[in-house]
Amino acid sequence: MSNVTLVEQFNPLLRVDFELKNSFKLLTQINKDRALSMSFDNNLLTEVHGLEYVVGLGIPANLKYTKDHEWVSIEGDVATVGITHFAQKELGDIVYVEVETLDQTLDKDEVFGTVEAVKTVSDLFLPLSGEIIAFNDALESNPESVNADPYGAGWMIKIKISNLAEVEELLSTESSEIPTIEI
């Protein structure tokens, strides 16, 4: 054995969450890594520090989320679904939203439609099992609403939830799995 390394991670070292009046959440987090490496060949001790600053912006605190970057608003047994600001930013300018599953009952994680951007087409996955009871018809003539107002006018479908237990599997803004913006 000629080398030994010890790695420490402090993730997060510091985290501060602010909830603003309009239910948007601001997350500020500092992550720190430290690695100590001892080489027995040349008797050197090396220490490496790394700091990462993470800021999450504009994440509505009153919604639930999926790992596929969809947001969900729950009212009783009806869920309204759209894509997150992060998802629309990654896709770019939205030019078409297609949902051909209106009035169909689908299982969680099944494809319920597609969103087309200038350079790509992406599937949309159902976050909860249930019947698709409404489609945002305004997106047919104004698909750019998904970019301009993803949590409002850019909503996509409404679902009559068939398995309310699945709601507990959705992510909250407290989850570290919600995408953040790194600076």
TrEMBL record:
InterPro entries: 2-oxoA_DH_lipoyl-BS, Biotin_lipoyl, GCV_H, GCV_H/Fam206, GCV_H_sub, Single_hybrid_motif. The modification N6-lipoyllysine is found at K119. This is Glycine cleavage system H protein. PANTHER family: GLYCINE CLEAVAGE SYSTEM H PROTEIN, GLYCINE CLEAVAGE SYSTEM H PROTEIN-RELATED. It comes from Hucho hucho. The keyword Coiled coil does not apply. The H protein shuttles the methylamine group of glycine from the P protein to the T protein. The glycine cleavage system catalyzes the degradation of glycine. The H protein (GCSH) shuttles the methylamine group of glycine from the P protein (GLDC) to the T protein (GCST). Has a pivotal role in the lipoylation of enzymes involved in cellular energetics such as the mitochondrial dihydrolipoyllysine-residue acetyltransferase component of pyruvate dehydrogenase complex (DLAT), and the mitochondrial dihydrolipoyllysine-residue succinyltransferase component of 2-oxoglutarate dehydrogenase complex (DLST). Belongs to the GcvH family. Keywords: Lipoyl, Mitochondrion, Transit peptide. The glycine cleavage system is composed of four proteins: P, T, L and H. Binds 1 lipoyl cofactor covalently. The keyword Mitochondrion applies. Its cofactor is (R)-lipoate. Gene3D superfamilies: 2.40.50.100. GO terms for biological process: glycine decarboxylation via glycine cleavage system; protein lipoylation. Residues 78-160 form the Lipoyl-binding domain. It is found in: Mitochondrion. GO terms for cellular component: cytosol; glycine cleavage complex; mitochondrion.
